[in-house]
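Quick bug: Major facilitator superfamily (MFS) profile domain-containing protein output formatted oddly.
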Amino acid sequence: MTVIQDAGTSSLQRRLNNIIRGEGRICLIGLGIATISFQTGYDSVVTAGFQGMPGFLAVFGYKDPSSPLGYNLPTHVQTLIQSLMTMGSLVSSLFVFLIGSHISRKTALWVACVMCIVAVSVQIASTNLNALYIGRFLLGLSNGIFTHTPRYYIVKGNYEKAAYAIRRLRNITDEDLLREEVEQMKNAHAAEQEAKGKTHFFDIFKGVDLRRTLLLYGLACSQVVTGRGFLSQFSVYFLGQAGISDPFLWVMITYIISLTGNFVASFLVRYRPRKTLLIVGLTIMAVAMFVMAIPSTVQGTSVGAGRVLVAMYIIHTWVGNATTMPCAACLSAEIPSQRLRPEMVGTSSLVIWGTAWLIAYTTPYFINPEQLNWGAKYAWVWGASCTILAVWTWAFVPETMGRSLEQIDELFKKRVPARKFRTFQVETENIDEKYSRRKLEKHEGEVRSTSIVVEPVVEVKG
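Here's what came back:
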């Protein structure tokens, strides 16, 4: 007897189909929310471009025959244009931990969008510096106001809506598994509330939570203190002062090339250890900064130094998009304690925006010809910071790839060292792995049930 199985699609195709059917809705929602961050990046690029454009400089700056651009911005104007937006984000972040437990994420996003529209309208409608400053500050406020998820409904005690949200988000049809996940979230939240009754805000700096808080702060720095901030906010001006012809064109080329890094990141973060990617990314970015600084230090402004600067700028930006930024973002979302998440996320946002404000405020004093006029030598600072962050990541950052939030909680409570995070056997089962396993078993059962049995045909000769 010969058995012919309708194998259907290959193993890889089945896996992709499971992802699309089960997680496709989450991906689309995440993509939609991620586009909100587009305005931050867009604003950084546009503002950086304006600082190198004669039309903008003629209105808000002054003529400077000694400048390669023909114009220059007063240092205090350049400082305020960039730092006020960051200051607004810093101010709004102060309130995140106060409202994070009381307002839904969806409402916060709506408030942020309205404030952003008002801020942009003010900037577009005026050529007055004071109006420009107000618009920059309001735009920063909108950036800091973002914090309906299943866990949000669990916190509010609405378990039916939590189950509905899970079913809708992940397309789970197995009611038993759905109840298991809701129950697991309820138990985790109950344990958190029991502990939280005895906790206060400053508990983020105590016990096992201190470790998580410090990790968040370090990861916050890895998103800012790498040179990306000054390159994105002052790129056109920086390249123009370095003697690069068509600086805006080169900035646009850099962003187009680095965009491919974002697409690569979606695969790297899913299939490669995040800690390893973070270390490799920071190391390459450090080398790029050092190579950027050396020719300028040795030769000063020259054609050769300019070419090296542009090449390293492209490499630095691409690597940051492909590794450092997405990995730091993933780890920052997974590491906070669930019972102290608003406080941890709020204070880490303070670190991000506080550090970003300091960079935006001080950078003009380093690169503007009115002040220190360091030019590309400023890259020495960021090469050193990238090196320090790479060593810190290797020593202290744990690997969270493949772990659920409940499993990560267990690992921190048991004080598992960072180097053992990936291999340590936890007691909490990963609900995603269980669901995938059940779907695969169900699919294999369907394949077996559709097997075709072919009986051999025996020809009788008479």
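Actually, after a second look the formatting is fine. The CA atoms of residues 118 and 138 lie 8 Å apart. Closing.
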